[in-house]
Design brief:
heterodimer; A: 170 residues; alpha+beta; Alpha-Beta Plaits; five-stranded antiparallel sheet; four-stranded antiparallel sheet; 4 helices; B: 586 residues; alpha/beta; Rossmann fold; six-stranded parallel sheet; 24 helices; 16% strand; globular; binds flavin-adenine dinucleotide; binds thiamine diphosphate; binds magnesium ion
Chain lengths: 170, 586
């Protein structure tokens, strides 16, 4: 039995009904589980289904319990532990506003290029950049831009999908 | 064409189609249209309680003693918030309840309107599921879904919040089968075949097995108890039962070792500690059972049968899990045993039984009786002796009296024992007895109570009077919150902070003021005659049994200790002292 705490990505398909997010979040807070990131949006407007991606951490025993508890919520149709899949994609989206600096302009563009980021706005000596990437790359990206003075940033939280197995909708 | 009806009328029709014959409730502004519809019909009986908490406990007593769903109806705001303790109780003990609450009209929700409370928000963590119905066209779907969810899979309470305008709007109702459920829910009830094979292999290999059975067997219905009986008889293995599982297997049977856990018997706990195979059926390894988890039955292989996969490996790791409804699982197991013509040679287990019988000889429930003072254990032994032929339904409050009732009464049938196990709610017993008596009007129903607990829902005496419910309240009056005092003696240097019950009412006069009969016994010699008198009285009785105030409940495994560190009596000292870890446990 291992007591190692690992990161897990859990993806659930839920009825898109009022209160469903409160049920999910309340389960985590009520039982003392961690949420490292959470993203949710409707993915099927005919069947009123939303997909929730949660990044959590804990020992295997705790995460098994989290999964079992989530599965018990009535609006949860299906749950997969993406981190248990053979291969998967997990990405995040970030918007970041930095000070425009004449001296560092070239460097900024280099970084943006390197990370495949694009500049969405260039006004009042402020730049807004967007980027999609793994959480690790996003953190690196932020770190590099920090030297120019970050005004604000927002991250979408992880969204994720297994490569082989299909996510069966019920 | 189907005629359109109001939401209130639709609700009542849905209830009738769900075969509801009784609901426990209390009216108020936000449910008046529903009460109006109840007034106009004859199929559903409404029992007017005196506090909404009691409505839920009454519904729990009704549900647990019949296997049916208990139904509650309350108004918005304070009516709804008063149900929270009851709903939490039902959640912890897996009792199927549907609670209908009124709500302010939809356009006023969120405005801090008069008697508005976000009851769906408040009860989210203490219900299995809940709905706020915002469209009258969804009302039938919500009600039928609520009944389905409450009773399928692991049972539990479901709340449906219905704004007042929805009760007056009109819609079509096409009956139960034609109504589309608004939630998707399909719990797994059939076990996996391989797991049954493993089960049979594992029991074949063990030499020191034990069945550890719990409330899930009661939840699964009387058939589950019958199949369990068959399995236990076939194998010849010993069986211990949790507080919630008492009666799932006859406690007077030779193979029954009594309750296990914190106040369980010596033989049960030692057998759990030393077994090589633990077969857990519908129990959930509660902390009252395991004690210190790291020292819990360290050498055994463990099998866990449960309908709820979140019960698996939650506190104790097991070797085989079987997910399914117990009656289905047991049926499959028995089929395979018969097919394989498995026999369980008595001889193989004779050493194990020898050990168990040695532990039994300790007679851990023996107590020193007195000629002058009524010992609570003696009072219950007499109650048991004089009522067991009547097969009474027993409910309890919470405290020492509850544990003594579990230890000294006989439970030979399922659904005859109603107690608050998971939440430990003082004030549960009287309303639960009320609900039980409604379901079984001709039977003897006894609430074994403490003088402190009974005061928590004493207003229900008025309900007993109104419906002429002949519930017998058997108070073991020790003038203390005995269970609290016992912990203070053991863990807090005997400083009895706020656990003495000052200024108690005169229970005899109290009974009389509600039109019931009051009895009081102060001497052991009084008991037999007065118990008989109590049984013979046609109406409700409060029997104030004045017991030894100093008695404590043994055996006891102090918190943070393991099964082999049991205290058997007042003179037992806990060798290691209570650890700091143990001190913070409840
Ligand atoms: C003061 C006090 C002292 C206590 N001391 C003790 C004590 O000494 N010993 C003791 O045993 N208890 C004691 N309790 C009670 C304890 O707190 C727990 O409530 C109790 O032990 C739980 O019982 P259980 O394990 O049978 O589970 P339950 O709470 O009855 O749970 C039932 C289990 O069965 C499953 N289930 C339900 N329906 C089905 C089905 N159809 N098929 C399959 N599985 C199903 C559920 O998922 C659940 O896991 C005490 C309580 C109080 C208030
Ligand atoms: C609603 C509620 N409040 C507090 C407690 C804590 N508690 C557990 S047992 C007990 C004392 C019960 O006293 P009594 O009913 O006289 O029973 P006794 O233990 O004396 O038999 C208390 C206060 C509880 N279980 N429930
Ligand atoms: Mg008392």
């Amino acid at each position: 039995m291992t007591n190692k705490s690992d990161k897990y990505i859990i993806s659930i398909m839920v009825d898109n009904e009022p209160g469903v997010l409160a049920r999910v979040v309340g389960l985590f807070s009520g039982r003392g589980y961690n949420i490292e990131s959470l993203s949710v949006s409707e993915v099927d407007s005919d069947k009123f289904l939303s997909r929730v991606t949660i990044v959590t951490s804990g020992t295997k025993i705790i995460v098994d319990q989290i999964k079992a508890q989530l599965n018990k919520l009535i609006p949860v149709h299906n749950l997969i532990d993406i981190t248990q899949q053979e291969s998967f994609i997990a990405k995040e989206y970030i918007l970041i506003k930095i000070k425009k600096n004449q001296k560092n302009q070239k460097k900024t563009f280099d970084i943006a290029n390197k990370f495949n980021a694009s500049i969405l706005s260039d006004q009042n000596n402020e730049l807004i950049l967007e980027m999609v990437g793994t959480s690790l790359n996003i953190s690196k990206f932020i770190k590099l831009l920090r030297t120019f003075g970050i005004i604000e940033l927002t991250r979408s939280g992880l969204v994720s999908m297994p490569i082989d197995s299909s996510f069966i909708k019920k | 064409m189907i005629k359109k009806i109001t939401g209130a009328k639709l609700l009542v029709e849905c209830l009738i189609n769900e075969k509801v014959d009784v609901i426990f409730g209390y009216p108020g502004g936000a449910v008046l249209p529903i009460y109006d519809e109840l007034f106009k019909q004859k199929k559903i009986r409404h029992i007017l309680v005196r506090h909404e908490q009691a409505a839920v406990h009454a519904a729990e007593g009704y549900a647990r003693s019949t296997g049916k769903i208990g139904v509650v109806l309350v108004t918005s705001g304070p009516g709804a918030t008063n149900t929270v303790t009851g709903l939490t109780d039902a959640m912890m003990d897996s009792v199927p309840i549907v609670c209908i609450s009124g709500q302010v009209p939809t356009h006023m929700i969120g405005n801090d309107a008069f008697q508005e409370a976000d009851i769906v928000g408040i009860t989210r963590p203490c219900t299995k599921h809940n709905y706020l119905v915002k469209d009258v066209d969804n009302l039938a779907g919500a009600i039928h879904s609520a009944f389905f969810i409450a009773s399928n899979g692991r049972p539990g309470p479901v709340l449906v919040d219905i704004p007042k305008d929805i009760q007056t709007f009109r819609t079509n109702y096409e009956g139960k089968t034609n109504t589309k459920k608004i939630s998707y829910y399909s719990p797994q009830v059939d076990p996996n075949k391989d797991s049954i094979k493993f089960f049979v292999e594992m029991i074949g290999q063990s030499e020191k097995p034990i069945f550890y059975v719990g409330g899930g067997v009661i939840n699964s219905g009387p058939k589950a108890s019958r199949l369990l009986f068959e399995l236990i008889k076939k194998t010849g293995f010993p069986c211990t039962q949790t507080l919630m599982g008492l009666g799932a297997f006859p406690t007077s049977d030779q193979q029954a070792l009594g309750m296990l856990g914190m106040h369980g018997t010596y033989e049960s706990n030692l057998a759990m500690h030393q077994c090589d195979l633990m077969i857990c059926i519908g129990a959930r390894f509660d902390d009252r059972i395991t004690g210190k988890v790291s020292g819990f039955s360290p050498k055994s292989k463990k099998i866990h049968i449960d309908i709820d996969p979140s019960s698996f490996n939650k506190s104790v790791n097991v070797d085989l899990t079987i997910q399914g409804d117990i009656k289905k699982v047991l049926k499959e197991i028995l089929n395979l045993l018969n097919k394989k013509k498995m026999h369980f040679q008595k001889q193989k287990y004779s050493n194990w039984w020898k050990k168990i019988n040695k532990w039994r000889k300790k007679d851990c429930l023996a107590y020193k009786n007195s000629k002058k003072l009524i010992k609570p254990q003696y009072a219950l032994e007499r109650l048991n002796e004089l009522t067991k032929n009547l097969c009474p339904y027993i409910t309890t409050e919470v405290g020492q009296h509850q544990m003594w009732a579990a230890q000294y009464l006989t439970f030979n049938k399922p659904n005859h024992w109603m107690t608050s196990g998971g939440l430990g709610t003082m004030g549960y017993g009287l309303p639960a007895a009320m609900g039980t008596q409604i379901a079984h009007p001709k039977s003897l129903v006894i609430d074994v109570a403490g003088e402190a607990s009974i005061l928590m829902n004493i207003q229900e005496m008025s309900t007993l009077k109104q419906y002429r419910l002949p519930v017998k309240i058997f108070i073991l009056n020790n003038h203390y919150m005995g269970m609290v005092r016992q912990w203070q003696e053991l863990l807090h240097g005997n400083r009895l902070s706020e656990s003495y019950m000052e200024s108690l009412p005169d229970f005899v006069k109290l009974a009389e003021s509600f039109g019931a009969v009051g009895l009081r016994a102060t001497q052991p010699n009084d008991l037999d005659l007065m118990i008989k008198e109590m049984i013979e009285i046609k109406g409700p009785v409060i029997f104030d049994v004045c017991v030894d105030e100093t008695e404590n409940c043994f055996p006891m495994i102090p918190s943070g200790a393991t099964h082999d560190q049991m205290l058997l009596g007042p003179n037992d000292e806990f060798e290691d002292g209570i650890s700091e870890d143990g001190m913070v446990l409840v």
